[in-house]
Amino acid sequence: MEASKEKPPSNMTLKAEYKSPNGSRIFESSLSPISASPSTKDKTAYLSALRSSVATLQEEVNGFLTAKMEEDKALVSTNGVKVDEKEEEENYGEEVIET
To answer: Would the pLDDT of 12 be above 80?
Structure first.
């Protein structure tokens, strides 16, 4: 039996998605495909590009979330409610059930 050789995707994308009741946002970074039989040099280059893309995407997401936190703080402060900054940062983006 002959082993089937799968063709790698021509377009690869690193993607993160933010969803909330007030909206959503998609963060994407394109990656160059790696050949079906990559050399060690190709693998190293691909992993380096992937690491760089992850770091860039993480910076974009962190910047977006920081801006969202600032918007939320501004809304809360205009309503005269005090915000526990530490608790807000720990729980941001997480569903918190208050008892």
So the answer is: yes
Q: How far apart are CA 37 and CA 42, in angstroms?
A: 9
Give the integer Cα–Cα distance in Å for 10 and 32.
8
Judge whether 47 and 75 are in contact, CB under 8 Å: no
Instruction: Report the distance separating Cα 70 and Cα 28, nearest Å.
Output: 23
Token couple for 17: 């998605």
| Dist CA 41 CA 52 (whole Å) | 17
H/E run at residue 25: strand 23-31
pLDDT digits (tens, 9 = 90+) for 30-73: 988 888 899 999 999 999 999 999 999 999 999 999 998 888 88
Q: How many CB atoms lie within 10 A of CB 64?
A: 14
pTM beyond cutoff 0.85: no
